[in-house]
UniProtKB/TrEMBL annotation:
Originating species: Amycolatopsis rhabdoformis
Matching InterPro entries: ADH-like_C, ADH-like_N, ADH_Zn_CS, ER, GroES-like_sf, NAD(P)-bd_dom_sf, Zn_alcohol_dh
Protein's recorded name: 2,3-butanediol dehydrogenase
Family matches, as PROSITE patterns: ADH_ZINC
Cofactor(s) listed: Zn(2+)
Membership in a protein family: Belongs to the zinc-containing alcohol dehydrogenase family.
């Protein structure tokens, strides 16, 4: 079968691999479609960040070259021994969070903070930019008929948005600023609406992404190139600032903007992957008593919630897809193009 493998920075290749066999506790899935994630592009342009290059990953035992792809839907074609609760023919989407199951984070219900955390499609052990993918059955989430293959490939980023909103402590009736309206920013908008936010301000310079933010329910969309975002947020919130701000952009001023835009004791959540450090003036915390927190991936319950929200049909998640490309074209039309001009697309799906 064909699969996209990461060899190193700016070096990904479509190669011929044997179709995997599901090991004990694994399932084999025929991939329907797989999204290219911002993290994939970070690995390509600025990595390796989470891809094991020299030392094998403790959970998968693999190191580069590894097959990429972790936002996908597909159909189960075989079950390994010990893979229970699922059946051949079932459509599934999958969590990417590989965990040990026994460390303090895992036993406390935070597998995304596992001491030996890995990501399926990043840390080895298979990946979904491929015709077939074998992975642990515990990652699989069955898809109801209401969820299309395309929407199924968007559940992983939706779960990430749900977790970020959870980390912010946002409660019904509150306000949020989302910096960046790429797929994760848009999923934070969807999740904030589902959590009952009544004011969601988005800052996004790309016209195609700004338009999508309005369509997904942002109450105001600002252009950081033209607007003084912090001043406009103040105006829109009666001079107070938002209850929660989410940095999904990792842009030179995005973190400062998020921190300056929250109300006293507001919450700033970093959801972005940074390729470089960013300056922080701690006085901004002193004078606002703001809380800064991080948000990584999601819990299994949050993935289940993503399935519920998508099945509820309130949002046309598929409209986030700006292009669908063949696996043979994933390097040129996918990785190279997204690394050079990320703002021109929202979500690109790959069809094996
Ligand atoms: Zn992702
Ligand atoms: Zn663990």
């Amino acid at each position: 079968m064909k699969a996209l493998r990461y060899h190193g920075r700016a070096d990904v290749r479509v190669e011929d691999l044997p179709t995997p066999d599901p090991a004990d506790g694994e399932i084999l899935v025929r991939i329907a479609t797989t999204g290219i994630c911002g993290s994939d592009i970070h690995e390509y342009r600025g990595g390796p960040l989470a891809i094991p290059l020299d030392t094998p990953h403790p959970l998968t035992g693999d190191r580069a070259p590894v097959t990429m792809g972790h936002e996908f839907s597909g159909t189960i074609v075989a079950l390994g021994s010990g893979a229970t609760g699922l059946r051949v023919g079932q459509r599934v989407a999958a969590s990417a969070v590989l965990r040990c199951g026994t460390c303090p984070s895992c036993t406390a219900g935070h597998p995304q903070l596992c001491r030996t955390l890995g990501f399926h499609g990043i840390s080895g052990g298979g990946g979904a930019f491929a015709e077939f993918d074998a992975f642990p059955a515990y990652l699989a989430n069955p898809l109801p008929d209401e969820i299309s293959d395309e929407a199924g490939a968007l559940l992983e980023p939706l779960a990430t948005g749900i977790h970020a909103v959870g980390r912010s402590g946002l409660t019904p009736g509150q306000s949020a600023l989302v910096v960046g309206a790429g797929p994760i920013g848009l999923m934070v908008v969807v999740a904030a609406l589902a959590a009952g936010a009544d004011q969601i301000i988005v800052s996004e310079p790309s016209p195609v992404r700004a338009k999508a933010a309005a369509r997904f329910g942002a109450t105001a969309v600002l252009d950081p190139k033209a607007d003084d975002v912090v001043a406009r947020v103040r105006e829109l919130t009666g001079g107070h600032g938002v209850d929660a701000a989410f940095d999904t952009a990792a842009a030179p001023t995005s973190f400062d903007t998020a921190l300056a835009a929250v109300r006293p004791r507001g919450h700033v959540v970093n959801v972005a992957v940074w390729e470089n450090p960013t300056p922080l003036q701690p006085n901004a915390l002193l004078f606002s008593e703001a809380t800064i927190t991080g948000s990584l991936a999601y819990t299994p319950a949050e993935f289940t919630r993503a399935v519920e929200i998508a099945a509820g049909g309130a949002h046309d998640l598929e409209s986030m897809v700006t292009r669908s490309i063949a696996l043979a074209d994933v390097v040129t039309h996918g990785f190279e193009r997204l690394a050079a001009d990320p703002g021109a697309d929202i979500k690109v799906l790959v069809r094996p």
